[in-house]
Amino acid sequence: xxxxxxxxxxxxxxxxxxxxxxxxxxxxxxxxxxxxxxxxxxxxxxxxxxxxxxxxxxxxxxxxxxxxxxxxxxxxxxxxxxxxxxxxxxxxxxxxxxxxxxxxxxxxxxxxxxxxxxxxxxxxxxxxxxxxxxxxxxxxxxxxxxxxxxx
Length: 151
Known about the structure:
With about 150 residues, the chain is α+β, with helices and mostly antiparallel strands. It has five helices and four strands; from the N terminus they run H-H-H-E-H-E-E-H-E. It has a four-stranded antiparallel beta sheet with strand order 2-3-1-4, covered by helices on one side. The longest helix is centred in the first third of the chain and has 13 residues, at about 35-50.
């Protein structure tokens, strides 16, 4: 039987610190927590192996880069094949995040697109036209991220 590894307060502190600054070094993490770089290294390996830390990334300012940030709330008809729809969405260049959801929408899809409205319309149509079991799509343009905290 596989051994179950527990997450403790130090692991949670590491995740919290990295969610604020993913560029922290093992040395900086060790100093902040009051432990050694070697222990941080072992814990980081464990957290990555367990899938708790899935990715290190940045949060760009899309507006400054000349892009629009759009969220599509997609409601599917009952019986829709969600997994195959997700596979199809993963192949779309402008689709950056795909989330399964409970509530009004079955899927929440984050899209980064050039600011040209005709191009945005074309991108949204190319995304939604491939989903045969769509019931409804809500489109939201994100104008500003006021707070972004992952943990």
